[in-house]
Amino acid sequence: MISTVIDQSLGLEFPIFQGGMAWVADASLASGVANAGGLGLIAAMNSNGEQLREEIRKCKEMTDKPFGVNIMLMSPFADEVSDVVIEEGVKIVTTGAGNPAKYMEKWLAAGIKVIPVVASVALARKMEKCGAFAVVAEGGESGGHVGDLTTMALVPQVVDAVSIPVIAAGGIADGRQIAAAFMLGASGVQVGTRFLVAEECTIAQEYKNKILKARDIDTVVTGKRLGHPVRAIKNSFSREYTKKEYDSSNVSDEELESLGTGRLRMAAREGDVSNGTVLAGQVASMVKKEQPAREIIEEMFAQAEEVLNGMTKWVK
């Protein structure tokens, strides 16, 4: 069985994190993944302090396994949720969309293991200096907010640049990709898109169906003009947005920003997958069926072990 410093240090059964996906990663999904042996994460992106506190307490009722909170630093509630994780005794925090340095001292003092998501070697090095336990190196194949570097290029460079553990993310949906991540030097993986169809995931069925019907060329990146590109599945909204994004003479940045507001919630919670944003990674077409989180994780790691054992035999 594959075991690394990640599962050993965090009290997990498998070295796998569930992505902290906004409007997706609630107490149900986080506890489901935690009970299945991975690290479930509650997304704090859309929550104020009290809303996050309620979700954390729900999760505690649903699992006695370790789970964490993902804090998106661009959230207007980042300051208050940074205190709530301390008050509620959360021991693992991942961060995204920025540099969490301003919160690190108080989190570390509270015994929290901080694991920032990074899209560059430079930020990974900064996070190590700030006291991060590990970093998630996320390539642009992932869904949601993306960077320029691919997972294949980013992960080994981050591994070479820091001495803390590296979790690979972006473009991971089966055991072959987990095996590849370990071959690149990662100590664990973070998976988002495949958990969208976990039975414990509470998003609208229409969103899940969109993932299950996706083809390999069905994702698109928008938002580059505003400086925060996002990968999602192509639909009526993405086509409208793309047309306006490249028409800067007639569409202002403010209008473009307003156009995207509330679209993820529209898809994930209301089921409007034509006019909402259906965030998903490039591996969406590899996701074939709804499954319990336990089944997803066990399948992935069984395949990863088979691949890695086969490679050892082949090399010999």
Describe it for me?
- This protein is of the alpha/beta class.
- Helices cover 42% and strands 15% of the residues.
- The chain is built from 13 helices and eleven strands.
- The strands form two sheets. It has an eight-stranded parallel sheet with strand order 1-9-8-6-5-4-3-2.
- Helix 2 runs parallel beside helix 3 and helix 3 runs parallel beside helix 4.
- The protein is globular and about 55 Å long.
Question: Could you state the order of secondary-structure elements as H and E?
Answer: HEHEHEHEHEHEEHEHEHEEHHHH
The secondary-structure class comes to alpha/beta
* Coarse morphology: globular
Termini separation: 21 Å
Strand content: 5-15%
Tell me the number of strands.
Answer: 11
Helix content: 40-55%
- For the report, how would you describe the main beta sheet? 8 strands, parallel
Question: Mean pLDDT, as a whole number?
Answer: 93
Low-confidence segments, given as residue ranges, are none
List key phrases describing it:
alpha/beta, three-stranded antiparallel sheet, 13 helices, eight-stranded parallel sheet, 316 residues, 42% helix, 11 strands
Structural topology:
Elements (H helix, E strand, L loop, with lengths): L4 H6 L5 E3 L8 H9 L4 E4 L5 H14 L4 E6 L5 H10 L4 E5 L4 H9 L3 E6 L2 H10 L4 E4 L5 E2 L5 H11 L4 E4 L5 H9 L4 E4 L13 H8 L6 E4 L7 E4 L2 H10 L7 H8 L2 H6 L24 H23 L1
Parallel strand pairs: 1-9, 2-3, 3-4, 4-5, 5-6, 6-8, 8-9
Antiparallel strand pairs: 7-11, 10-11
Give a brief description.
With 316 residues, the chain is of the alpha/beta class.
